[in-house]
Amino acid sequence: MTTLEFSHVSKVYNVRGAGQLKALDDVSFTLTSGRTIGLVGQSGSGKSTIAKILTQLEAPTSGEVRLDGTPIPRRGRGLRAYRQQLRMVFQDPFASLNPYHSIRYHLERPLRLDDVVPRAETEAEVRRLLERVRLDADAVIDRRPHELSGGQRQRVAIARALASRPSLLVADEPVSMLDVSIRLGVLNLLAELQREEGLGVLYITHDLATARHFSDEIMVLNQGRVVEHGDADAVILDPQDPYTRELRAASPDPEAHFAAAGPHSTAPQGGTR
For the whole model, what pTM was predicted? Predict the structure, then answer.
């Protein structure tokens, strides 16, 4: 089992003309393979800063991030090995894929960089990844991102994240840029992959309804501080912090939300918009 510890992390930015801004204030949590944590908060709460620190795009001002008890290296082979274990699905599928390269290229590149399979098996692995995210490989493999719909592009982004066979996934608002009609299909796909691959998933969102249905536990962030953290149902059904109650009151009723979508709402293979 893979264990990622985010231990007493604070992050302070120096803002020109405004002094210091504390984006994170003593935040701690533990993400393990096979579990999903829903990280919930409004814009500016610090969610994206956590994602940047986990992916080593930013360094914490204080505190530590450890993988299986070992501090994450900042450079070299150790950092590369860590990044193979933890991958990210970005919010915007329109910007996260290079418009000049084919879908084949986007998936071949991590396979080759991380030596996932022998070169002779690369084509078969690319096709397996596309089928894994319910895309018709023959229909999309040689297309470029602009020839696909938003939902298809996000599925390609998920396939790319899975290419290195990580044990942990950071999903940063993965459906917020998609049409409402196809969000549930993508979230169902992520939940299915999490179960079948045994992934640890940090699901970053502002939507309590989806956080409850797709997370084992929920952590609520407000102005860089964790104000509530516990079992998903307990946090949603019996929130203790006033901020969590405000978020719940402002969110759509989760039971009605998913009932309206239907009990078996999944996107058809290869037909995602």
Answer: 0.88
